[in-house]
């Protein structure tokens, strides 16, 4: 389910389909009660608006999708996991600057 922010909310049932439909994906594992996660929200909205074609910015609520969080070893939030062609290629933990996210997204295109 995509929102007006350009960020798609993923669930256990939509996760793999979303990965398969995009060449590069960054998934933000977050929770509504997490202060740093809330601070990252506008940054990720900017990234989603500016993302190149074929690159998806998505979120997974760890409270609602704990099995997905466990599958990818998410132990702290926010955690950003970068996927290329369905495989994990990078990860960042904690609130990070937009420039660093964009740099790592660019690496997905090469």
Question: What distinguishing features does this structure have?
Answer:
Glutaredoxin; alpha/beta
What does this entry look like structurally?
Helix content is 37%, strand content 26%. It is of the alpha/beta class and 110 residues long. The protein has a single domain (8-109), classed as 3-Layer(aba) Sandwich (Glutaredoxin), CATH 3.40.30. The protein has a 5-stranded mixed β-sheet. Helix 2 links the parallel strand 2 and strand 3. The mean pLDDT is 91.
Second-tier CATH architecture: 3-Layer(aba) Sandwich
Most strands sheet? 5 strands, mixed
Helix content: 25-40%
N to C succession of SSEs: EHEHEHEEH
What is the class in the CATH system? Alpha Beta
Strand content: 25-35%
Low-confidence stretches: none
Quick one: how many beta strands? 5
Structural class: alpha/beta
Please give the radius of gyration in angstroms: 12 Å
Total number of helical segments?
4
List the helices and strands and how they pair.
Layout: E1 8-9, H1 15-21, E2 24-30, H2 35-50, E3 55-61, H3 66-71, E4 79-84, E5 87-93, H4 98-109
Parallel strand pairs: 1-3, 2-3
Antiparallel strand pairs: 2-4, 4-5
